[in-house]
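Exercise 7.
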Amino acid sequence: MISVLFVCLGNICRSPMAEALFRDLVIKENLNDIILVDSAATSSWQIGLPPHQGTLDILKKYNISSTGLIGRPLIKEDFWRFDYIIGMDKNNIKNIYNITGKPNHPKIIRLLDLTKERKDIPDPFFTGDFEETYRLVSTGCRALLKKIYREEKLYY
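Solution. The predicted structure, written as tokens, is:
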């Protein structure tokens, strides 16, 4: 099983959006028996809570299921449980390094570094722009799926 973990600060906006969107892509590609998807937070503020209403609204708008999305913390053991650990911005990456104790490990990737945009995904909790976040997360998730196809030698 190939495992992917999306990580952001609170696990209520960007990372659950990425989890839901990526899971939707995986299901559409008939890879749900091969790829496991989850998300986590580098903080403990929102643990046990559902995603932000803005995330739920944007997922609903694009007909993507939000079933099972609940905030949880990133833990050190996640480094060993997941093949790909995907942060949304540079601060997330720095926090992932600190929590896992694995600085600069190649399995820890900033999502948009897989795209031409190579930038942070702004946190819509602060910007209020869930549409922009969705667009960027969607672009990044599609690039991640291509990377997994290549690296894991999966075929269409």
